[in-house]
Amino acid sequence: MYRRRKDKWENFKVWFTLIIVVILAVLIFASKWVENAINKLMQRAIAYPKIHQLEEQNRRNLSRIYQGKVVRRILMNPNRTHAESRIYNDGELVAQFSTIKGDEIENLKGVLPEGQIGFINETKETYGQERYRKGKRHGEYAEYYSNGVLYRRAKFYEGKLMENEIFYFDGTPRRIEDFKDALRFVDDPEVGYGRIYYRDGSLMYEWKLTNLLKGGYKKSYNKEGRLVEEKVYDNMGDLVEVIKPGRP
Description:
This protein has one helix at residues 2-65, and strands at residues 70-76, 83-89, 92-99, 106-110, 115-121, 126-133, 136-137, 139-145, 150-157, 160-167, 173-178, 192-197, 203-210, 215-221, 227-233, 239-243. The chain is of the alpha+beta class.
């Protein structure tokens, strides 16, 4: 009986020691995890002011670039229903207008300057240059991210958008459009020729509705590059057929 009690006591000590070791290991692991989490939070807290300072520096640089020149400042209205633009000439307000849809100029007050002007979009945090002639956009348009990478490049003719390119933050193409031979009198924004790309640069969607083609198509692709749907249109822009490869 004495030996049995002694054996039980020895087993108890072994199990107790193992439990203590496991608890200590868990505590050490937890303390390391907490320490790493705190370090990450501290790094973010340190990095945020640097990022904020960089953005402020970019804004100051833009202000210096356009000082004494004609500049358009763009800001979303409080209800976020449209963009409001104010054009200044050496700090003096000379014109203002609203943009509700696309690049259209609405509710114009004042006189738009002739020639090239700079602009700063305070909502999108982009900047660039554009040209005006007789109160309409006319000519080259270039818009950049705050880091200087091209965001958008376009061409206008007497207020009408003729070519349009949009890029991702790293400069990869995102959207390309050409409206020079766009099918007329069609209530569809996807006229002319256009392509939209996935983030990795592969083709997601394309369309072609032109006068020369006498109709056209719209095609959708998956990320593997396989055609998943094609819509065929007649010369009036009306849908004729929907083709889904691989489906009866």
